[in-house]
What does this fold into?
Amino acid sequence: MKVRIAPSLLAADFSKLGDEVRTVEIGGADLLHVDVMDGHFVPPITVGANVVRDIRKVTRIPLDVHLMVERPDDLLDQFVDAGAACVTVHVEAARHLDRTVRYIKSRGIRAGVALNPATPLNSVYYVLGLVDIVLVMSVNPGWGGQPFLDYTLAKVEALKSEIRHRKLNTLIEVDGGVGLDNAAKLAKAGANILVAGTAVFGASDYAIAIRDLRAAGSSSASEP
Ligand code: DX5
Ligand code: ZN
It folds into this structure.
């Protein structure tokens, strides 16, 4: 099983965003992870749908939008219209998660649900058959460059076992502190998509960083 690499633009140089996007596209990125923060769900403010719309024009890579916002329902249409391939909402912010997930899917794109490190896995179990992706946060959301929280590895394993048990195709995405030191372990535990901000944009050669992460992950990725 091949693990997919999703560079997180949060760690890119925003003064030359188009170039950064093209460089990771040429470098082999499978998805482009866009972190949207509203200053409420998490303290920082990052980018809105206008940035997604403009990135869409310069790349063919699917845009994986991670909404770290309060009241995500108010923003869904904006991001779908801007060209997101997948929109992920936090279970801690989506009060009517089932309705939100169904709405995203009704707009014809993939729906993801994200869990903060301390949020129990069973908060997504009832909608597991509806969602395309579960994003397991392996740091507390808000900033790039934080150290990976080791206990989240067991969470990935437990989620994978539930997905297997129920014979679902749900993908597991892991976000935060992912690097060469943990990519193999994460893939073995069941991660299908590795988000990497600092590990890609902090490297001198993005293509080599993506290739090495994929190689580390793919050599030990577990079967579905
Ligand atoms: C954190 C974001 C992450 C972040 C990861 O709140 O959701 O996507 O960009 O950055 P690194 O890979 O540097 O931990
Ligand atoms: Zn993210």
